[in-house]
UniProtKB/TrEMBL annotation, chain A:
<protein>
    <submittedName>
        <fullName>Response regulator</fullName>
    </submittedName>
</protein>
<dbReference type="InterPro" id="IPR011006">
    <property type="entry name" value="CheY-like_superfamily"/>
</dbReference>
Automatic annotation (TrEMBL), chain B:
<keyword id="KW-0597">Phosphoprotein</keyword>
<dbReference type="Pfam" id="PF02518">
    <property type="entry name" value="HATPase_c"/>
</dbReference>
<dbReference type="GO" id="GO:0016301">
    <property type="term" value="F:kinase activity"/>
</dbReference>
<keyword id="KW-0902">Two-component regulatory system</keyword>
<dbReference type="InterPro" id="IPR003594">
    <property type="entry name" value="HATPase_dom"/>
</dbReference>
<dbReference type="InterPro" id="IPR005467">
    <property type="entry name" value="His_kinase_dom"/>
</dbReference>
<feature type="domain" description="Histidine kinase">
    <location>
        <begin position="126"/>
        <end position="335"/>
    </location>
</feature>
<dbReference type="InterPro" id="IPR050980">
    <property type="entry name" value="2C_sensor_his_kinase"/>
</dbReference>
<protein>
    <recommendedName>
        <fullName>histidine kinase</fullName>
        <ecNumber>2.7.13.3</ecNumber>
    </recommendedName>
</protein>
Amino acid sequence: MREFFIKREPLEPLTQNEFNKMKFLARVAFIDDEEVPHVARLQKDGYNIVHFPDIENIDDFVRKEYHVVILDIQGIGQHLSPNQEGWGVLKYLKDECPHIVVIMFTGADWSITEYKDLADRADAFIGKDLEFLDFKSKLDAGIRQAFSNDYHFNIAKSKIISEISNTTSIEEVKRIVNNYGANENKALRLIKKHIKNPDTLKTIGQLLTILNGIRKLKTGL
Amino acid sequence: MISDFPFAKFENSSVEFYDGQAVKLPKEYRRKSNFSLLHNFYSNLLLNKPVEIEIGEDPLGFHFFQYDYICIIGIVCQTQRRSKFNSLKKKYPLNQFSTEFLKHRIIEEHKLANHKEHIPINVVSQNLHEIRGLNAKVTSNVDVLLNFEDEATWEDKFDSANVNLKKIYVASRLTKFILDNTKFYDPDFWDTLELNKERFFVIHRCVNKIVKIYRNDFKLEKPDLEFTGNSYRKLAGDKEYFEVLIKILVENAYKYSPYKKLGPKIKIVENDKRVNIEAHSYGQIIPNEDRQHIFTKGFRSSVNKGKAEGTGMGLHNAKRLVEKFGGSIQYECNPIKSEQDIELGWNIFKLEFLNTYSPQKNAFA
């Protein structure tokens, strides 16, 4: 059947009003071995943020499917990467679950310089001495990324590009994801007309699952 | 003590000889048969703590350089007798230095040992890191107590907040600015700084915040800071860097306002999408010949050098920052009068941003 006759089921980006409500549904993990009063204040404001002094078991942690992780650098990651501490956790998360938005919570720019390559993989940085309102604004920006279709598409895109060389196909995939992504099966059926590589299709399938997870949060408002 | 060169030191009422980090101690110093000879010689020598550099030859034929309590040993200098020099040079080629070089180095090592000019950078870094961490605790706890819901509330209610809380807030912000200053000395800082242009902030609120901080700082008998105009238009980029930019201008305006009755002024002028922020200070006008250099790294105008401490980095950093925000900075002046060849008037630093966004602009717009 020609795509022209197929009913569109688009994945709409969030409006500002939708975001203002949805940001409280985002699962946020805050990892720091010290007390940070901002966290209690965010919880009081309605954010779904949990404070852990460290990550005891990274696999358990990943299974909880946080949208945003805020990571301290020093004193954490003792079980996973005692030498690289928070940078080691960042590396693990970006290797294993690249769709999680990771924000580094840092007070030392020189440690960024030392781990520049790893630092480039972080989505953002929050200075430890930021005021609450600035901290909140940066967290909101992180949540926006986590709920942004484009953010997730670009992560999948970098993986797809390594598997196929036809850039037209990528644009076509994006168009189909945007127009039909709300119905995962329909979108995948249409994409299969352009892409046959099973690894690429798996990546796109994972992307659609993530985007629909966000959509379902929105429809549950 | 750590030295690049081998050295002698009194340790537990005995003379000890140590390797340098870069140059090793000749093995003759550790030979048992030389012990009493060297011990007697250096015991006497180390009793002196000369205030000028003293150079001499020890019983083994090596040169020593002594300055205060530092005594560099095991050195081969060309001033030694030719036959001795040739044999030691051949045996210890890495211990051979010119007298002038070692004179310079012993002074440097003396300063280093006394922390007069050098503090190891890792000590500084670690301490700054810890101060920043503690300052973060102050900031976050005072934020809990001030309990402002959003930036608009902050702007409206800061002045009427508890005086002591305001003081703690201001102290923690000023500490942050000092700590932030160290960033600008990183050689890669300007090349690697990328502002997040997907973030937007209200210009007026940033300026107002810095004005309020400086109005509430701890200086007594300071002139009033006048703040006029407003623009609730938004700018793209990281707000914290914009605050640093405004802080530089406000701080300078205060610093170079010597007359209590003519205090500094901060003005915001909005004209369609264009927003100007001006910092005015009344004092000696910056001379013509200095004007082209005022944004140069390390430059300080002749009229300011004697009046206030400074590094000459503020305006340079301001220019680099304003460019990152897509704006520009200019100097203008408004001369008022001349007194005994001194021209007095308003020095004005004007920031200009041509592409600002409407107050409704946000990350989704």
